[in-house]
Amino acid sequence: MQNNINVKPPYFAVIFTSVRNSGDEGYSKMADRMVELASKQPGFLGVESARDKIGITVSYWKDLDSIRKCKENSEHKLAQKLGREKWYKSFQVKICRVEKEYGS
Amino acid sequence: MQNNINVKPPYFAVIFTSVRNSGDEGYSKMADRMVELASKQPGFLGVESARDKIGITVSYWKDLDSIRKCKENSEHKLAQKLGREKWYKSFQVKICRVEKEYGS
Q: Left (φ > 0), alpha (ψ -120 to 50) or beta: where does B71 sit?
């Protein structure tokens, strides 16, 4: 999915990149649940995701406070904990301020 | 590929998301060339890319000036022009300041 974020910059992005372990092990279900949860959080603007050798998920947020609150969500914490152990060989999270955008 | 950027924030990211038209039409060759060119630009820190339904490419840069210079590169401009017409149904570019990062 590609999102047109309906707000003008500045807004915020969380770039999550990961390398998966083999096997699903409940990953797809949890990933769907995480997106569903995030999308209900105040300040959530959208999410884009693609995976081949690595996975890149970019979620967009109104402000840093919305990102902090989402991160503190206990179910999300659980997913992070399980993810570290079971799903991901490695992962990286980058918190960004979107300053400018253009496109077709 | 997943990159560990060897600088501490703040640095900058260009999030490029796209929906492709069907067929390669020289796309792969040009995409490889663009990454090769970008990686030679001063201020280039790394790039991560994944594609399934959409494509997400995130390139990382030392500063905004490096991004501007890369964009002004004439061969890149050519790729953008051709891309608009031939390769992409749609694309979006977001220029971001990476403020914080963590990971495994």
A: alpha
